[in-house]
Design brief:
Shape: rod-shaped
Radius of gyration: 80 Å
Largest sheet: none
Structural class: mainly alpha
Number of helices: 4
InterPro entries: HAMP_dom, MCPsignal_dom
Number of domains: 2
Keywords: Membrane, Transducer, Transmembrane, Transmembrane helix
Helix content: over 70%
CATH architecture of the largest domain: Orthogonal Bundle
Main location: membrane
GO cellular component, one term: membrane
Organism: Dichelobacter nodosus (strain VCS1703A)
Amino acid sequence: MKGSRRSQQDDNHQDKQNVFGWVAIGFGALSLILIVLIIIGLFTGTEEQPLSLGIADVNHAGLRFLLPILLLFVVLAAIFWYLFISSQSSEIQDIAIRQQMKERQNQDAILRLMDELTDLSNGDLTVEAQVTEDFTGAIADSVNYAIESMRELVGTINRTSSRVSDAANITRFIASDMQKSSIEQAEKIHSITQTIGNMVGSLDRVAASTTDSAEIARNSVTIAQEGAKRVNDTIGGMNNIRENIQETSKRIKRLGESSQEIGNIVEIIKGITDQTNILALNAAIQATSAGEAGRGFAVVADEIQRLAERSSNATRRIESLVKTIQTDTNEAIASMEKSTREVVTGANIAEEAGMSLTRIQEVSTSLALLIEKVSDSTRKVSSMAINISQDMSRINDMATTTSENVIKTSDSIANLSQLSSELNDSVSGFKLPEGY
């Protein structure tokens, strides 16, 4: 209530001062207007020729009337201006007194606020400044807001540092496991790289062997082609031999048939010889019966008988020779037929050998192509293995770098854990209310 009365009195006093000021300004303005009119009248009276004496008298009369009014306005303006200045001086004194009282009140409020915030400097965030109606109320409100923000900040820092510490510990263990895994991975990659290097050497040897095998297969194809050609020539020769044997067999058969005919003729001659011998014997008997007259006929009969005996002996020898020829001919025919069968069998075997050589040639050709493909594939695999070996070497370098980075990360995490502990220690001095 006192504050409202004081404010109302100040407003009334201020209105009074404003009235004095405006009245003084009004009289001053009227005085200025009168001065301007007087000056205009004076200049009009001196610079222009008067038209008549009446007009000049009127101007002098007006000036005599305006001068007292002007003096009155000036006096009133001075009085009201003096009153305005006096009221201003009194107001200044009142303002100075009120300012001193206000400063004393502000000092008391500041001291009270400082007393309330003394524990805050020691880290006690449970304090709370009293909000009043004076100017420190806004400060106290701002301080309370700042304290609340600090409470939330310190609480967040405590929770975050705890989480960071826990996460750093977990991450440190994970980094340790990663370090071990990366070391094992690097060792395995190094072992794989060596194995791939050995495999590349083996593949090179296999490629060289397959190249030699391909050359051998090509030579085998050539040899098989030559063998097939020679077998075909052999088959042709055996066919010629078979034809010659068959022709010889036919001739021997014809010779046997001829010897058979000779045997038949010999039989006829033998019969004739026997009959001649019988006739010669009968003629000798008749010649003996005839006595002396048949002696010459008896001699002829004896000669005929001796010729018949000689013919009979020759016929027996011829018959024996013919039988021998027939026996040899039959044996030759049997041998020829056996040779023909053997030649046919040999030709069939040679033909089968030729077919086998042809299949060998085809298989050797396919094998040569397959070996060439295997050789090309082996060379490609060897090239791929070399690239893989190079990639594995780079991966090994990357694994080594990763292991080093993991070690650095582990060190950084250890530093982070230490910083988290230091951060937690730095805010551990703050005292927080329950719930933060």
